[in-house]
Amino acid sequence: MLIRSLLVAAALLSCTAAQAEARRVVTLAPHLAELVCAAGGCERLVAVSAHSNFPPPVAQLPQIGDGWQVNLEAVLVQRPDLILAWDGGTPVDNIARLRKLNLRVEALPISTLDGVADALETVGGWLGTEAAAKAAATAYRQRLAGLRAKHRGATPIRVVYQIETAPAYTVNGKSPISEAMAVCGGVNMFASLPTLAATVGAEAMLVAAPEVVLYGGEENAADIRAYWARLSSAPAAKAGALYPIDADRLARAGPRLLDGIEQVCARLDQARAKRGR
Q1: What is this structure's pTM?
Q2: Does residue 146 surpass a pLDDT of 50?
């Protein structure tokens, strides 16, 4: 009976949601919640995905699943008039199931650093917060342009962004993380991988000969050090250039990504200084 009642309510909402400003928003990835808030719609959020934690009040909202599984009943209870999915990240089956329930689902693509500003404006249009979203997008574009100008001409340095150790994963050149490293003069040694993220063997790491290894601060630093101790001939291992990065900032396609870029640039400058000595 509860499910049937929720489905009826969802159907009624769907009749007007496409035309009206979204008032009750559910997000299916952490960076989408950040985008909604940055676009001036934080008070419109009624539920989020697991690991959503910025801005801080977002962490107190109900969670409807994680990046792979969505609790349909938990979504329906919130009576959303807009669900934001991550185009390229949210499984397409999840999107299809939500749409079969007559729910409005918009899949938001972000594949470049510049795409964050475009996404802010798109979200602002869906929420009816165009002025706030435009201001946020303009500020983002100006700051990104400043970072690019500041680090233009930086001496290239070979970099690997490492995820886990058993096995190790990294990202290819299409990842915004790779583009972020490039802003700082970092050369992604696995840019040519066929998929956005993939496992990389120890031999391939040695052949790549990175001068810097960046890894998310949530990773076990001891495991990272032990991994590279076994590859002690690699330049990054010899120099001790194994640096943690705030992955929440660098790996999430929202305005805080620029903070992540600043961290990356600072780390690469440290490595260049070591190389100079």
Answers
A1: 0.88
A2: yes
Residue 180, token pair as written in the block: 């972020």
For residue range 218-264, what is the model confidence (pLDDT) as tens digits?
Answer: 889 999 999 999 999 999 999 999 999 999 999 999 999 999 999 99
